[in-house]
Specification:
single chain, 58% helix, mainly alpha, 434 Repressor (Amino-terminal Domain), 2 domains
Length: 125
């Protein structure tokens, strides 16, 4: 039978988010579905769901893989350091749409960009 520790460790204050919530938020911010993210890591989608819902805890190897795939530090993923905003890199959803727009004929690109500009102008009011 293991001995009881003599000293009680103070509780960790890792913010309001759990690891699973933080993992889901970071995944969504980068535009990945659970299926896409699981493929990037090399595991099945059901495991991503289980990690995000806190049904199971990832081991250190998976935490490192998650952080690398999400392009954050393990400290940011675990909640021990504040996340640094990367203003210069758009999320994957925007990049995918940009590639589709670039594949359109020039005339259609012009019309679509005019519509986007009108929408953005209206949204700023």
């Amino acid at each position: 039978m293991p001995k009881k520790p003599k000293h009680k460790l103070p509780p960790l204050n890792l913010g309001d988010e759990t690891l699973g919530q933080r993992l889901a938020r970071l995944r969504k911010e980068r535009g990945y579905t659970q299926v896409e993210f699981a493929g990037k890591i090399g595991i099945i989608r059901e495991l991503i769901s289980d990690y995000e819902r806190e049904r199971i805890k990832p081991n250190y190897d998976l935490i490192i893989r998650f952080a690398m795939a999400l392009e954050v530090t393990t400290d940011e993923l675990l909640g021990t350091a504040s996340a640094k905003q990367k203003e210069s890199s758009p999320n994957l959803k925007i990049l995918r749409r940009m590639k589709k727009i670039e594949a359109l004929p020039q005339a259609q690109q012009k019309i679509l960009l005019q519509n986007i500009d009108m929408f953005l102008k209206g949204a700023q009011k």
